[in-house]
């Protein structure tokens, strides 16, 4: 995955540049702290890979890649707050509000969310491509996308294991697939893809997100604690509905496999999708 | 103020349409609850007045007007949260988190902030005008604008009355002027104004915001509780630095007057600024 590592380095360099310019405000330091905490950078890497595959200029698409990573990071900061999941740790480090206090963490999330759109607006791309990216990102990340998924997640927790499989699938689609879709769609846009290419990019990401979540549910039951790095069986303990609790392990595996196949088959629309195929397989056929 | 009332009605109609389409999610109801709670709608009205003054189409600028009001509303929802100002009431009604719970209020703020950019992206305006509006709004509302001002406000509270006049002016400029600037600048953009017109619009709003805040500080000392609708002397009681505590009443009045003059003089650049002049005078020469 030489290309992937190169893209991660590009994205992290650009994030540093956008967030590290001044330490005038504590809130800016909090934004940089969380954005630089790492993670797999899946979304910006997908964006750059789609752009490249369609013949676009990766450097020009870089601000869009930063934008989707900023949205992802803000959602983690707000998710970790005491009124949400109340997590003290994120990627082995104190979560943003543990490090900077709740008020600054709240503002840091707001700041990253807002800056995502500044990044797109300032990109060296045609105005119609930039406004297309603003539209895609704001809709996929908004109340009819990711935020709607977070809201459904809150409601599902109250209802425990009594929710329907349809509701769970919709929750996963909004909570996880939507932002992945924005990444792939913005990549296709920046690469000069036509409507059909953008649609195929979104279709790929939809199934990738679902497959990824279902694999997560399966690993929570079958995984090895050591490989996984977290206790198994936590979903059942929390009375949380999962694809395994709703369908059983066998059917959950079939569904994960069906969504993986659909993701890979959407990729076949594109020529030169080798790197993306490898990345997809690494994400889906995993043990942690 | 016939034009003003007409513009308020336009904005409220458009906000209803954007937020009232479905009650599928509780978070959408929370967004609508706060956006419909009213207030003076100063920012969208300013935007539409600037657009109209420059010969633009008010209906086409309406999504931009909604966007700035959504940003204002989200900032109030997040400001009211327990980790910030912990206010139970907003405009005489339970604040968003009192009505819907903290998690939903957090998401409702995020949802309005995100939707603001969807509104701009979907406007029936040329792509370069829309992307210009995204740039202006995201910068003015971001960490180098409004959010930076909120952060400075938090830091000032810790430092109490020991901050410098320069710091207080910068806090007011970011916390209050920045979003007003985005409103006037987006209005000028949508009206087809050139760079100089946009700059003048921003200059007007900068001084309007400062004058407004200084008048607030003065009324907290000299105001009549009945007219003002809130207890006077609260700033001094909270040990909060204000223009009055830093400069004394006489000098604060001179500064308010100087910024009012500068705001009105920036308006003189434009022909047909009569309505805006009246609005400005109403905002600044007030008793509550």
UniProtKB/TrEMBL annotation, chains A, B:
Name the InterPro entries on file.
Isoprenoid_synthase_dom_sf, Polyprenyl_synt, Polyprenyl_synt_CS, Prenyl_diphosphate_synthase
* Keywords, ordered alphabetically: Isoprene biosynthesis, Magnesium, Metal-binding, Transferase
A biological process (GO) annotation for this entry? terpenoid biosynthetic process
Reaction equation(s) it catalyzes: isopentenyl diphosphate + (2E)-geranyl diphosphate = (2E,6E)-farnesyl diphosphate + diphosphate
Q: Report which superkingdom the organism of origin falls in.
A: Bacteria
| Pfam families listed in its UniProt record | polyprenyl_synt (PF00348)
List the record's Gene Ontology CC terms alphabetically: cytoplasm
UniProt-recorded Gene Ontology molecular function terms: (2E,6E)-farnesyl diphosphate synthase activity; metal ion binding
* Metal-binding keyword on record: yes
Its needed co-factors are: Mg(2+)
Q: What is its EC number?
A: 2.5.1.10
NCBIfam families according to UniProt: FPPsyn
- Record's family? Belongs to the FPP/GGPP synthase family.
Its protein name is Farnesyl diphosphate synthase
Q: Which organism is it from?
A: Fumia xinanensis
């Amino acid at each position: 995955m030489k290309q992937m590592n190169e893209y991660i380095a590009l994205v992290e360099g650009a994030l540093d540049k956008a967030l590290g310019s001044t330490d005038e405000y504590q809130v800016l330091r909090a934004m940089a702290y969380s954005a630089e905490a790492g993670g797999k950078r899946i979304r910006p890497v997908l964006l750059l890979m789609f752009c490249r595959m369609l013949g676009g200029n990766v450097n020009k698409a870089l601000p869009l890649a930063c934008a989707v990573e900023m949205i992802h990071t803000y959602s983690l900061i707000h998710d970790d707050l005491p009124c949400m999941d109340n997590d003290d740790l994120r990627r082995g480090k104190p979560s943003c509000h543990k490090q900077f206090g709740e008020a600054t963490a709240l503002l840091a999330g707001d700041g990253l969310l807002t800056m995502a759109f500044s990044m797109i607006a300032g990109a060296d791309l045609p105005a119609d491509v930039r406004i297309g990216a603003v539209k895609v990102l704001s809709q996929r990340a908004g109340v009819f996308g990711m935020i709607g998924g977070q809201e459904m997640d809150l409601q599902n927790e109250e209802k425990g294991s009594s929710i329907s499989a349809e509701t769970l699938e919709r929750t996963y689609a909004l909570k996880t697939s939507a932002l992945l879709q924005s990444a792939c769609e913005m990549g296709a846009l920046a690469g000069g893809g036509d409507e059909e290419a953008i649609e195929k990019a979104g279709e790929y990401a939809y199934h990738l997100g679902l497959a990824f979540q279902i694999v997560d549910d399966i690993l929570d039951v079958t995984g090895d604690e050591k490989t996984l790095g977290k206790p198994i069986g936590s979903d059942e303990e929390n009375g949380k509905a999962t694809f395994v609790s709703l369908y059983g392990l066998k059917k959950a595996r079939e569904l994960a496999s069906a969504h993986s196949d659909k993701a890979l088959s959407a990729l076949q629309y594109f020529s030169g999708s080798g790197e993306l195929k490898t990345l997809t397989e690494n994400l889906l056929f995993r043990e942690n």
